[in-house]
Amino acid sequence: MRILRAGDHKRMPWKNGKGETVEVAVSPPSASINDFDWRISMATVAEDGPFSIFPGIYRTLAILDGNGMVLDVAGSSPVLLTTASDPLAFPADIPVEARLLDGAITDLNVMTRRDGLAHTLIRINVDGSKTVRLSPSTCLLLCHHGALSFRLDGETGALAAGDALLIEGATATVLEIDGEARCYLGSITAG
Fold first, then answer.
1. 19-23, 53-57, 101-105: lowest mean pLDDT where?
2. Where do the domains of the chain lie, and which CATH numbers do they carry?
3. Among 11, 57, 111, 165, which has the minimal tally of Cβ within 10 Å of its Cβ?
4. SS3 content of the chain, % helix, strand, coil (to 5)
5. Phi, psi angles (nearest 5°) of residue 137
6. How does pLDDT run across 128-155, given as a tens digit for each residue?
7. CA distances (Å), origin 14, targets 21, 50, 62
8. Element (H, E) at 104
9. In the chain, count of helices (H) and strands (E)?
10. Residue 94 DSSP label
């Protein structure tokens, strides 16, 4: 279990060069944008346009901030995503066009290599105390807004906005959370 502080997240250009991404965590740790097994990152989308193509990758996206955007994923009807929407899963190796509703947005992306991994992404609102059941996998809890304290298998810690808790090799267990926060939990499993 490791706490990943917001100030330590790695900033890099998008694969298509049209923006910047903030990498929260990646596996293996030295992986580039082209050879990761899994990756969790945030990006600011400031203009309409195409998403980067990632061959062999499956992606789930959630809107963290902003008024939303419409995603036109090839072969599907356009989907409106806002901060209230459930995360949207789609292949990252097909054409995807984004159209902003009213100004820039920030999104959260979980991406896994399709030939061996799978993932889920859920939003968790914390107002007081909450318990979250973790599946046997690699889990990352991102504290997007607010602050929280946590307990897991006798260890404790705290997360501020932008911080994340990375739990590798989690066994089915319970994460106890206290505070006021909007969080996202990504779980990565062998597929």
1. 19-23
2. 9-115 (2.60.120.10), 118-190 (2.60.120.10)
3. 11
4. 0, 65, 35
5. -175, -170
6. 999 999 988 899 999 999 999 999 988 9
7. 6, 11, 17
8. none
9. 0, 16
10. S
